[in-house]
Design goal:
alpha+beta
Length: about 140
């Protein structure tokens, strides 16, 4: 029994069409994958920066818990702890209570140091959204 030549050509045409569909699907998916990968990287960088803000705020709060510590010493300690953290803007450092010596004659009460900064996420095809990162440290006064 002889096989007709037209039956042998049909699978080739189908395979050629499938390659075109695969290329189209790839072209549709690639931008989404790029956004996903860059988004994961950018959020990881932002999370790392946020952890740095928390660590700096804890350092400041630890120093602030001592009765002889002053506001300027606390701010200096936080700024020193932020040396290794790359931030997009200048951080805002807040010590509560706002007295010159936050823990002077306040034994057993708490002192809070907060560090706030903005960060720009750079995700291709998405834009550059800006997020606010906050770090907080809280200790009891000695």
């Amino acid at each position: 029994m002889a096989v007709k030549p037209s039956l042998l050509r049909a699978p080739r045409r189908s395979a050629h069409r499938e390659r075109g569909v695969a290329a189209l699907e790839f072209a549709i998916i690639v931008p989404l994958l790029i956004m996903l990968v860059f988004g994961i990287v950018q959020f990881s960088i932002a999370f790392n920066r946020k952890q740095g803000l928390h660590a700096a705020a804890r350092e400041g709060a630890r120093l602030a818990s001592l009765p002889q510590s002053t506001q300027s010493e606390i701010v200096d300690r936080v700024e020193d702890a932020l040396d290794g953290v790359v931030l997009d803007g200048t951080p805002t450092i807040t010590v509560t209570p706002t007295a010159t010596r936050p823990c002077d004659q306040r034994s057993g009460q708490t002192v809070v140091v907060e560090v706030t900064s903005t960060d720009n996420l750079e995700i291709p095809l998405w834009g550059n959204p800006s997020v606010t990162l906050r770090g907080r440290g809280e200790f009891r006064c000695e």
